[in-house]
Specification:
In chain A, 81% of the residues lie in helices and 0% in strands. Chain A is built from ten helices and no strands. Classes of the chains: A mainly alpha (248), B alpha/beta (252).
């Protein structure tokens, strides 16, 4: 990460800290604990194994959902974006499927796949699948005809077209949708972990809330936010590494 | 290639583009021949089918009528010994210059000796650019990289689609001289599509004028003086450009 980005992050954290502190003074520490107390509780919590069990459960669900969404949506998006006929065939399905708020299907998904990890991962996968599919498809559509001619005249076949043209052209769009997808995935993760589980940061937050342990609850909120931020930054770093040409 | 055979022959070539409820014929009854080590310039008004003809020769656009034969064989798909250089260079922005130059050889599984690679780069004055991306190059450098990529494949026929159109005049003339140098030193033919009259006269031993209205060849002008880098200062050059301008103005 560049020094400037670190500076921006540090400044943002400081602003949030002081705004939070001011707000906790106004509302009273029973409703909003002051950040220093949360900070101390955070240190106590990270020293316990139980806390890391929750982190691990959430992280695994998130990574599994991102992985499955990636391996399902990206190849499909690349194929649809570079094949007009197939794209036309599937366009109505995507058109209808994308706007449906998949989160309302949660009860159906839980009935079909169970209340365990599988059901939770399937729901998150379904939600980010569409985001990833549409962005990848749209990126793959933007291929200049001259580039296609160029590759074919150099002796490139259909497979070469995918590896040397469609994939690199779509990669920046894929990273963008992964970054956006992380935000959505974390939000859905919280929701699915607040139901029928005893592991995961979603449960940890809801459980602390139920026991009126607000400082602990905020530790969970911060931990979940950190997971989202770190994953966002990882995709940003990967994009900068693999799509260097895009920023020239 | 057999000495008796034709290097490139185009017979009765036609191309109609078909849309859902519309069809447009851009080429009709085009007959053309090209000998080995010959060079041809194709000119004509916008939309007359210059690029379509070139892309058909490259095997990238299937004709709707007629046939193209290359070294006595039918040409229906991109041919290994035909290289294409495009107007906007056809470089892959996500690949470095080095990877762009090597791509053709890589796709065709040709092992290019390092010495040959270096000599092509030296010939075109693009040494030391390997690690850069196309976006970091000037227009002239990009076109030289595209030319190097094509030459590395040892083409027998080089097709150039308005290769110097987006380049300033001084660089363009330098690149035209570059092309003539390479042409003099290597064994290949080339066809250049251009809308620039001076470029056509400087680079075409024969100049094919396409007629947009009749979708075929209006005339073929002989230009035997071509090939000398000093040709631009020759009175014959001015005569030829004036003659060609007159033909093109008559087509507008």
């Amino acid at each position: 990460m560049k020094r400037r980005a670190i500076g921006v992050y540090a400044a943002t954290i400081l602003i949030i800290y002081f705004a939070w502190y001011a707000l906790s003074l106004m509302l009273g520490s029973n409703i909003l604990p002051d950040p220093f107390r949360v900070f101390i509780r955070g240190f106590e919590e990270i020293a316990t194994t139980a806390f890391w069990v929750h982190v691990e459960a959430s992280l695994l669900r998130l990574l599994a959902a991102l992985f499955f969404a990636f391996i399902l949506a990206v190849p499909a998006g690349l194929v649809l974006g570079s094949n007009e006929r197939l794209d036309g065939l599937f366009a109505p399905l995507i058109y209808l499927g994308y706007p449906i708020p998949k989160v309302v299907l949660m009860p159906v998904i839980f009935v079909l796949f169970g209340l365990g990890d599988l059901g939770k991962v399937v729901l998150i996968t379904m939600i980010i699948f569409f985001q990833l599919l549409i962005t990848t498809r749209d990126s793959a559509r933007k291929i200049d005809r001259e580039i296609t001619y160029s590759l074919r005249s150099l002796g490139g076949g259909r497979l070469d077209y995918f590896f040397h043209v469609v994939w690199p052209v779509s990669l920046p769009g894929i990273f963008t949708s992964l970054r956006i997808g992380v935000g959505t995935a974390v939000a859905v993760l919280f929701l699915v972990e607040s139901i029928a589980t005893s592991e995961g940061l979603g449960f940890y937050i809801i459980d602390s809330w139920g026991r009126a342990e607000y400082a602990t609850m905020f530790v969970g909120i911060i931990a979940l936010s950190i997971i989202g931020i770190v994953m966002y930054e990882i995709f940003e770093l990967l994009e900068r590494k693999f799509c260097k040409w895009k920023s020239l | 290639m057999g000495t008796s055979g034709k290097f490139l022959a185009i017979e009765g070539l036609g191309k109609t583009f078909q849309n859902e409820n519309d069809s447009k014929t851009v080429l009709e009854g085009v007959d053309l021949e090209l000998a080995f080590r010959d060079c041809l310039a194709i000119v004509g008004p916008s939309g007359c089918g210059k690029t379509t003809l070139l892309l058909a020769i490259a095997g990238l656009i299937p004709p709707t009528a007629g046939a193209i034969t290359f070294r006595d064989g039918p040409l229906a798909a991109p041919e290994r010994r035909i290289a294409l250089v495009l107007q906007h260079y056809g470089l892959f922005p996500w690949k470095t210059v080095g990877a762009n130059i090597a791509l053709g050889a890589r796709l065709q599984h040709i092992d290019v000796p390092e010495k040959r690679l270096r000599s092509v780069k030296r010939e075109l004055d693009i040494e030391g650019l390997d690690h850069l991306y196309p976006a970091q190059l000037s227009g002239g450098q990009r076109q030289r990289v595209a030319l190097a990529r094509a030459l590395l494949l040892n083409p027998l026929l080089l097709l150039l689609d308005e290769p110097f159109a987006a380049i300033d005049t001084v660089t363009r003339e330098r690149l035209q001289n570059n092309l003539l140098d390479v042409f003099a030193q290597r064994r290949f033919s080339f066809i250049i599509v251009t809308h620039n009259i001076e470029e056509a006269v400087f680079l075409g031993r024969r100049i094919v004028v396409l007629d947009g209205n009749n979708r075929g060849i209006k005339t073929i002008m002989d230009n035997p003086g071509m090939g000398d880098p000093q040709y631009r200062n020759d009175p014959v050059f001015f005569e030829r450009t004036t003659e060609l301008r007159g033909i093109l103005e008559g087509l507008e």
